[in-house]
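Whiteboard transcription, Tuesday session. T.W. wrote the structure tokens on the left side:
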């Protein structure tokens, strides 16, 4: 096989891997992750990119908590959702790598 042909094959392989990785990341970013807020206080939602999309509080349960407890629970749920989004992105990257 000529050197030119080997280089063409290599370029083709690299482009294919890049396209596969791009599709995998786009797929993850289009997903949403929902995490319940502790004590049935609601739910938070982040995008696959880790961006906070929505906070929904259960107004019926709010009277049974305090502002500091709500803040801590809300922060914990957001961090958990963002970490999960990061894990999904990393899994997509790992899966798109050549073996």
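and on the right, the sequence the group agreed on:
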């Amino acid at each position: 096989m000529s050197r030119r042909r080997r280089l063409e094959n290599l370029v083709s392989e690299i482009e294919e891997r890049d396209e596969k990785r791009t599709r995998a990341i786009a797929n993850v970013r289009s997903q949403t992750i929902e995490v319940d807020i502790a004590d049935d206080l609601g739910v938070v939602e982040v995008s696959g990119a880790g961006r906070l999309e929505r906070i929904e509080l259960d107004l019926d349960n709010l009277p049974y908590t305090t502002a500091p407890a709500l803040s801590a629970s809300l922060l914990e749920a957001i961090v958990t959702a963002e970490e999960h989004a990061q894990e999904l992105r990393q899994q997509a990257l790992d899966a798109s790598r050549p073996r």
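Someone added at the bottom: The longest strand covers residues 32-37.
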